[in-house]
Specification:
Blueprint lengths: L3 E6 L12 E11 L4 E6 L2 E2 L13 E12 L2 E4 L3 E8 L7 E7 L1 H6 L3 E6 L4 E5 L2 E9 L5 H11 L4 E8 L4 E6 L5 H21 L6
Antiparallel strand pairs: 1-2, 2-3, 3-5, 4-5, 5-6, 5-7, 7-11, 8-9, 8-12, 10-11, 12-13
Length: 208
């Protein structure tokens, strides 16, 4: 799958009588002509200090996404998904990600918000630079993933810790996110704005 930065989604690519172009800022788009689908993702946020984006050992990043597909002349959108990428030089086999969010005082006093998101279908593979584990959980209404995304959107400049947990072996890896929720809020909002624009233009019911 080829991901590229894009300010424009050529929406007419898969629809014949809707609109020609919609401007969508700050997102990544991957088009798949074979099955007439697109994946739209927020730009990734590196979760560790000193990390740069790319296929590098030790990189952990977080994004949200949705897919768009045309079938029998009709447009369909998936729910918003919470997408984690965890790379390292050894397997963790995580099956749960915990997002710990709060002010410095709340974190210190143990009163921060915790959003525990489980995923039994983590994808794992070996790359040229190490081990990669990825998790995609749909943020359906009322789910922990949905609550976490909304918490990021309605609050400013909170601290954020992300803990990847292997419950079976009782192992985990925890990182403190540089700049807390600041970059996540900006990039989540850009993707959700695109989602809402496309839902409005195609007359589809919003799922988020």
């Amino acid at each position: 799958m080829r991901i590229k930065n894009s300010f424009w989604l050529l929406a007419v690519l898969f629809t014949v009588n809707t609109f020609s172009q919609i401007r969508l800022k700050g997102i990544e788009v991957s088009n798949h002509e074979k099955d007439k689908s697109s994946i739209l993702m927020s730009k990734p946020v590196a979760l560790e200090k000193g990390s740069f984006l790319g296929n590098v050992t030790g990189l952990k990043k977080l994004q949200i996404l949705f897919s768009a597909k045309e079938k029998e002349g009709k447009q369909y959108f998936s729910p918003i998904g919470l997408f984690n990428t965890y790379t390292s030089d050894d397997w963790l086999f995580f099956d749960e990600v915990v997002y710990i969010v709060g002010t410095k005082e709340q974190i210190k006093n143990g009163n921060a918000f915790e959003f525990r998101v489980k995923d039994k279908n983590v994808t794992r593979n070996v790359t040229e630079t190490g081990i990669k584990e990825t998790s995609l959980v749909f943020a359906t209404k009322g789910s922990k993933a949905n609550l976490f995304i909304n918490h990021i959107l309605i609050n400013d400049n909170l601290e954020l810790y992300v803990k990847y947990i292997n419950n079976k072996d009782r192992k985990y890896d925890e990182v403190k996110v540089p700049k807390g929720t600041k970059n996540l809020k900006k990039r989540f909002k850009a993707l959700l704005d695109a989602y809402n624009i496309l839902c409005e233009k195609t007359g589809l019911k919003k799922e988020f």
